[in-house]
Amino acid sequence: MLMPLERLRSILELLFREGVLVGERDGCPRRTHPQLPGVANVEVRRAMASLRSRGLVRQTAAWRHLYWYLTDAGVAHLRQYLRLPPDVVPRSLQRVPRPAVPRPEARRATATAAAGTHRARPAGGDRLYRRKDEGEGHVERVAVTAGQGLSQPPP
User: Fold this and answer.
1) pLDDT in tens, 23-66
2) For position 58, which CATH number holds?
3) Quick one: DSSP state of residue 22?
């Protein structure tokens, strides 16, 4: 498909800047691309088909949309075509510095210290879920009555 070089260049610049391009799967030639004013959606699809046939982008389809992802060869080709320096990389390949997060153990300890109160444990303690006492070797029965909570076993 023949298209003006300004439109092709704007498509390729957007693709390189973001690293990913989305296009609606629609054959209507009058519909414009939402991210590129003045460029038809059909022109975006044809430009991406050309790059896809050369192995510079990878295409994924989902319902009514097509997604194109730059490959490493595509990054090198567009960097040369757009005359960009080697330190410029697409947004999808940039590393985002994450703030230092304390370890989960430290967070948990500070959260319980900040709360100040711990949840009260039942009178039976950990015997409620254990089957045998460690020293006795028999099963202890605990009766629960409605409305009164936990009670002691009968004598």
Assistant:
1) 998 878 788 999 999 999 999 999 999 999 999 999 999 989 99
2) 1.10.10.10
3) E
Q: Quick check: is 143 in a domain?
A: no
Q: 57 vs 48, 49, 66, 72, 106, CA distance in Å? A: 7, 9, 12, 9, 44
Residue-range definition of the domain harbouring residue 75? 5-84
Structural domain includes residue 132: no
3-state secondary structure of 12: helix
Six-digit token pair at 117?
């109160």
Domain count, the chain: 1
The helices-and-strands tally (H runs, E runs) of the chain is 4, 5
DSSP class per residue in 48-97 = HHHHHHTTSEEEEEETTEEEEEE-HHHHHHHHHHTT--TT---GGGPPPP
Mean pLDDT rounded to a whole number for the chain: 80
| CA atoms of 111 and 93, how far apart (whole Å) | 36
